[in-house]
Amino acid sequence: MSERSMSGEGAAVREQAWSSTAPPGEFRTYISAEESLREFTVRAVILGALFGLLFGAVSVYVGLRAGLTVSASIPIAVLSISILRAFGRSTILENNIVQTTGSAGESLAAGVMFTLPALIFLGFGSEFTFWRIFPLALLGGWLGVLFMIPLRRQLIVKEHGNLTFPEGTACADVLVAGERGGSFAGRVFWGLGLGGIYTFMMNTMQAWTSQPEARPSWLPGASFRATITSEYLGVGYIIGPRVAGILFAGGVISWLLVMPAIQFFGQLAGSTPIYPSTIPIPQMTPDDMWRQYIRPMAAGSVAAAGLITLIRTMPTIISALRAGLKDVRSEGGNAPATNVASRIERDMPTSWLIVGSAVIILLLFGLLTIAPVKGAHTTWYQNLLAGILVVIFGFLFVTVASRISGLLGNSSNPVSGMSIGTLMATCAIFLIAGWTAPSYGVLALTIGGSVCIAAAIAGATSQDLKTGYLVGATPVRQQWGLLVGVTVSTFAIGVTLGLMNKGLEKYIPTEIPVNLQALPTGVKVEKPIFEHLGKNYVLINALGSSKIPDGEYLYDPDSKRIELQWAQGIGSDKAPAPQARLMATVINGILSQRLPWRLVLMGVALVVAVEILGIRSLAFAVGAYLSIGTTATMFAGGLVRVLVEATTKQKEEGEASPGALYSSGLIAAGGVFGLLGIVINLLQDPEIPAHVPHWLTAVLRLPWRADLFAFGPKMFGPLATSNLFGLIMFLVLAGTLFYFARKKLD
Fold first, then answer.
1. Residue 545's CB: how many other CB atoms inside 10 A?
2. Are the beta carbons of 227 and 652 closer than 8 angstroms?
3. Quick check: 684 and 705 in contact, CB under 8 A?
4. Residues 604-616: pLDDT tens digits?
5. Which of 121, 149, 236, 573 is the most exposed place for a label (fewest CB within 10 A)?
6. Which of 199, 150, 296 is closest to 599 using CA atoms?
7. pLDDT tens-digit profile of 483-506?
């Protein structure tokens, strides 16, 4: 038996035994249906919205760089318990609303960054703006929340004991422990503080190098490197040594086997470039080979691995869909006779789902018809079809995602696989109809992106609703919290994507003679007038051309040649966005058939070999696509976890363990201070006065000097660029993770 303090006004203290995993016949909610506690309060909604903004932005930043995201529900729950407790007595239901509202940002970010950046890779980079991202993210997020309304009672209540919803159950246990006096937030704050100092000193003050690297002369073409950020270390610890090791193995194959082989055999090419590169192999750096040869090959690997994952989970998907449709039918036929449902059974009306779906179809139709992507106009009936397909595929995969999330956990939810399935089905329809122009690629991405976002939201929403069911929350209030969280975090996600794309962009001198009146196959004019540094250029885009590498270029009408390559931030080595690149590869492969097929098929063959060895290939394929610097640091985080488990003689389990909480702080620190560094870089841009109000330029004295915060080289001298010093500082950070992971929680 355990003692629980009832946190409402004047609630009595009484003895009650409660277990989140009690069998259906014995289970009861922590707060009973008869009790009425503060729940959907102003402070809970505001704090949840702030967490949605924070973790939405951090998830986009980490996801674009590392290719994956980690759950935010438990970190938000432990922070909420601590913060609300500091402002006076709070209830467990208030804390649940905070984590429900806040965690919507992380799941929405995953769906958005997996798909929508593909707009850049499809050749519409100038259209990748906040107002293009925001409505699609918002509509997809709303769709995911609305479609969970009829599924909640069946999947979460009636399937209690069959569908475990592991993250939701763990979060409920954390909330109950906090209600009983436990405090875990200090561990997250330590990670946030130490990780923040480390990130600011490394990135902004430039006190040490962020990427120690060695290119050995005895293995030409190889590069040994590690991108020593706090977020990669934290991600590696949370995902564990097994997954981190598979990711790193993919990087080893790409960077230490394939690239040296390209350099070795490419010596025979002399000064002749080999497609898809336009640079002769003997003159290529490791980064050149990664961009031109490894990424197309690894995109084939990721596509094949995603398809294999989809096929492997197809029996589960089919059974989940059948069960879900059966549940919806039975729900419709067995509606309660009374209109008065108990507090813990009160959902949003199902009619809202029907009206909401119709509104989303109309809004999507209006968006595509009234404000289409420039250069991607489609007819009204094609836009209407897109809206209908979004709702059909959305309901299909929301049902599947929520059930798989209950069976296997949200981290095992094959959202990217379901997105590939949506894109393949959509592109197949377009191909049969003869819709193969680039504009239809954008339409297919709109459908696939909206469905991916809805499925990602549904997986996380089902975990949140499970938490609410266990602790005795009011479902309709949670559903409102989710809608608030989706709406608010969409702003942060749109702004963060724009910041990263702009703040990490580069203009690289590139001289290529081009006849604008007779452009090579795969090259098109994207924008007739593009201003850069006070000069007008023509923006042209190359995709699948044998003459010009994929990318966007500034053509000078006076010199009759390309002068600069516009390398946008998303897609660069600092934000490679592997899943979005995969979506663009699938669309191009089906509609335009313009791909370096030999490289793509080599990647497919690699994945088949890995599957034959009995290794799940998706993590391996993503690791092959990412820079080895990223995967090496994540592997280091996995090794720290091995050491912790070896020295404490116990296995680190769950997201509420000491090491996982400290790692969550490291991830948040890397995201927050990484974004701060990008903002500072933008304020140092010589062109910034032309893009902000004059009064702001005068107040902030823009642009700032490039070395305004760069104290590192002055303080540390040659150590600031030393690979060894950078590794030592990273080992110090890893040492703090080891220490706090072994230290027991209060």
1. 20
2. no
3. yes
4. 999 999 999 998 8
5. 573
6. 296
7. 999 999 999 999 999 999 988 888
